[in-house]
Amino acid sequence: FLTLFSPSSSGLSQQKGSVEQISLHCSEGTLEWLYPKGALRLTLSPRLPSVAVGPGGGSSSGLITACVKPSEQFHGAQLYLEREGVLELLVGDRLESSPPPRVRCFSRLPGEKVALFLQATPHQDISKRIASFRYELRGDWTARLSLDSNNISSEDACRPCNNTEILMAVCTSDFVVRGNIQSVEEDENLKAAVIKVSATRVFRQKYALFTGNSRLTSKGDIRTLLQCGVRPGPGSFLFTGRVHFGEAWLGCAPRYKDFQRAYTVAKAAQQIPCELPID
């Protein structure tokens, strides 16, 4: 759900030094602060399922992962993470010459008090200042899928899924697609690999990620961490994953024949979490 805070979150309606309290109940959205003055304190209160299962197969049990993506025109404020009363700078006030801002992610453990604190920076002319960012709050995936992956080991981020994780990913992913890898490119801004996929069957997709004019195939891009070393090769794969700020990010991706084998065995044992019309 996309939520736009404007113009009620204009600094023109705030007193200098005041702090306006806002609760973020939507799981994703955009916050736009016009003419920043004073500060905004944003509490994270998403309406998420009480138990959600991620690609790792485990329950979040109250764990929330949040990501923020500042706009390239983010000016006039600084964004902090407030955790147990301590502030950590996430996004500084950008200059015209600053490099593109990167996505920042963090997790809130059960019982932790976490908020985002957006503080205006002093400027003589605030008429051209807009502090805007997109955010996502999820209870069904962890930092394994995070773009802000400095503290994630390659072993954890790139580990192949086991059969249990694959079968669960088929049920819980934002997209489930059978296809082939056409090529792999590098996204320099995100430091990510972009997998160019030719999809022969789209089982499910949350958004129009895979499109095309052909009746038999459609095309789309899937991103993954650069350190995973994905290379183009022959064969058909089952691609699953999450949509992250409008882009597809890879979860489990077994060879299709391996998925078929695992699915058939689990179905015979009546242990499949959901049905999929496989060939």
TrEMBL record:
One of its GO terms (molecular function) is hormone activity. It is found in: Secreted. Its main location: secreted. InterPro entries: Meteorin-like, TIMP-like_OB-fold. This is Meteorin, glial cell differentiation regulator. One of its GO terms (cellular component) is extracellular space. It comes from Cynoglossus semilaevis. Keywords: Disulfide bond, Secreted, Signal. Belongs to the meteorin family. It comes from the Eukaryota. GO terms for biological process: glial cell differentiation; positive regulation of axonogenesis.
